[in-house]
Amino acid sequence: MEWTRKKELIQFLAQPGIGVTDPDDDALARYDQALTHRSYAYEHPIGPFPRPDYERIEFLGDRVLNFIVAEYLFRHFDCSEGALSKRMEATKNEHLGAIVPGTGIGLEQHILLGAGQPLTRPIIADVFEAFICALYLHLGLDRTREIVLGLIADDVLHFDPDGNVIGRLQEHLQQEYNEMPEYHLLGRTGPDHAPTFACAVTAPGLLSARGLGRSKADAKRAAAQRALAALEKRAER
Please, is 104 exposed, middle or buried when counting C-beta atoms within 10 Å of its C-beta (0-12, 13-18, 19+)? Predict the structure, then answer.
């Protein structure tokens, strides 16, 4: 692995949202694989051998993610199987691909893509699942559960399959401007029993909007709603 790529992955893994330090070379190679799309692997073989891409380990990562989320929902909601299944829709590609950029870890910025290959929500979702597999094989289930829930539990808890404004904003920016939104948690105020979170969403040179909510997910949705409304108003002019 190139030194610059190795350094990039070490810094990515060490950030507070993940907290993985001192990975060995085998673990780093698997994290690199998880972040490599087949288009890039095809263009950059390793000698006579193809470069590993994320597709095989994404298979296992998908199962690990679904187990973690299903267990979380089962433990936190005393509701019917149908209601639990509805909430599990958060792990579907079209929704997961919208949730992941809002985690703040910048996963999508480290994905290796071939020339001309656009970064899409399904690719982001698949890479996240492959990344979960790399975490699982490196750290085991308990630590992987802790990291994954730290990243997406709030979004899963407040997931609304019928009003995915975060996904609509991302889709609009990608289709119209070939840009991805970035979410930043600005802070938290108020007492523990009734907190208020502030979140900002930005796209360089295009938009900046803020939102407030009783949860981080609510604040992200509020920011996305304001940004989407501003873009739609701009399109009407």
Answer: middle
Q: Using CA atoms, how far apart are residues 68 and 58, in angstroms rounded to an integer?
A: 15
On the 0-12 / 13-18 / 19+ scale of CB atoms within 10 A, 175 is exposed
Catalytic, out of 32, 58, 62, 154: 62
Q: Is 62 a catalytic residue?
A: yes
pTM value is 0.73
Is 22 noted as a catalytic residue in this protein?
Answer: no
Q: How many residues are given for the chain?
A: 237
Q: How do residues 117-134 score in pLDDT, each as one tens digit?
A: 999 889 999 999 999 999
Q: Which ranges of the chain would DSSP assign to H, the alpha helix?
A: 3-14, 25-34, 38-43, 55-76, 81-87, 93-99, 121-139, 141-157, 165-177, 216-236
Q: Which of 126, 129, 154, 155 is catalytic?
A: 129
Cα–Cα distance for residue pair 199/212, rounded to 1 Å:
6
Give which of 153, 167, 148, 150 is closest to 221, Cα–Cα: 167
Residue 18 confidence (pLDDT): 95
